[in-house]
Automatic annotation (TrEMBL):
Species name: Populus deltoides (Eastern poplar)
Coiled-coil region: none
Full protein name: Phytocyanin domain-containing protein
A matching Pfam family: Cu_bind_like
TM helices/strands, residue ranges: 155-173
Cellular component per GO, a single term: plasma membrane
Positions of the Phytocyanin domain: 25-126
GO molecular function, one term: metal ion binding
Range of residues in the leader sequence: 1-23
InterPro entries referenced in this protein's UniProt entry, alphabetically: BlueCu_1_BS (IPR028871), Cupredoxin (IPR008972), Phytocyanin-like (IPR039391), Phytocyanin_dom (IPR003245)
Amino acid sequence: MAFDKSMVIFFLIFMAFCRGVSMAAVYQVGDSAGWTSMGQVDYQEWAASKNFHVGDTLVFNYNNHFHNVKQATQQGFEACNATSPITTYTNGYDTVTLEKLGHIYFICGYPGHCEAGQKIDILVSSPTSSLSPPPSTQTSEPTEPSTASSLYFRYNLYWTLGVLLAFCLSGFAY
Ligand SMILES: *[C@@H]1O[C@H](CO)[C@@H](O)[C@H](O)[C@H]1NC(C)=O
Ligand SMILES: [Cu+2]
């Protein structure tokens, strides 16, 4: 029983650790193409292929002679209107940490660029609860000391932790 409890605690600590690691994801907008108006990237498609969470970081990589990044309101995003941005970034390598749930909109402020598709709507969502809950600690089952079933439980738990670690390290846990 003590063994089972310590394993459950280990499992919970592990999950917290995994979550912390996963939440620090860094995404370069447009991947290797960066932040561009040349049409190589469908930013809506790019954004739809990711799961953004609070704590993740976006990197806008671009030539700042030709582009900038303006965080826009939903109206500004939809109308490609960059006249009253929430924030303007002009470094050419700008990092933005996602701080809250919901949509965050970015457009390029150079004439015609947003219209050409240099705009992105990032939806920051809470972590999915697709993972199964930790093993039950209920004591209602018969407490026959069965070496076979305890070994099976142990094997099963290590296997589960191994799979979770693999998911965690590849960034797909959340
Ligand atoms: C752009 O937005 C500003 C302020 O939000 C507004 O005053 C202006 O009329 C808008 N321009 C266009 C062309 O919609
Ligand atoms: Cu631009």
